[in-house]
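Margin note: ligand = zinc ion.
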Amino acid sequence: MNKKQTPVRYCRFSVDGRSYSGQVRDNSVDIVEGDPFTGMSLMRLSYPVDRVKFLPPIMPKKIWCVGRNYVEHAKELNHEVPKEPLIFMKSTSAIIGSGDFIRIPDWAGVIHHEGELAVVIGKGGKNISEANALDHVLGYSIINDVTARELQKNDGQWTRGKSFDTFAPFGPVILLVKEMPQDAELKTIVNGKVTQHGTFSQMIFPVPRVISHISRFATLEPGDVIATGTPSGVGPIKVGDVVEVEIEGIGKLKNICAE
Ligand code: ZN
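Resulting structure:
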């Protein structure tokens, strides 16, 4: 393969009532047959990007999450910086695609956005070393780890506050690369205003450490998603807000908050 080729941006999308796998190129989406796990071939049919509805690029069995993985975010919520990765889970039933509504319940208190880099596992494994960790990566996507902050705090356990239906916007594409540039930027934008801004070099525990850490206690499986933590600047979202999480090289995950 030509090494200078730009990496594939794999997606799932629907158009005219049917759904397809695809790859996004500039302003078009090409239909592909197969998937990134088993191999893909181009089908010579494409749609303009603004005609398609993006679906979650895969449906993982599990969403692993890292809490407080950026120093400034730990500080803004008055927490110590953890000594090893702090792992929790988010229900897969919370997953929605780019363009879907985040449903904000009127009884759940303050709801926050958390824009994050999502690692998609390609090859599963147990006891993966940090040195080999990136061999297990299929690619990278974007996740908004939407959180009912007061419930998270009051429950002690985080499951409820993190797992409301629609609280895991995911996509629009998986960038099929083993490693993201450390200086790639992540931005969360609410109603056109940048609220979060960070680079992956600011992570306390970088991706290889997180993969290795999880695989010491649980078998990672192909398609597992790891939300790698959020930079500082988390804040409330409410009905009517437009929330976008943008990562350089991957794209933009856009959702509107509704009742
Ligand atoms: Zn998070």
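Helices lie at 71-76, 149-155, 159-162, 207-217.
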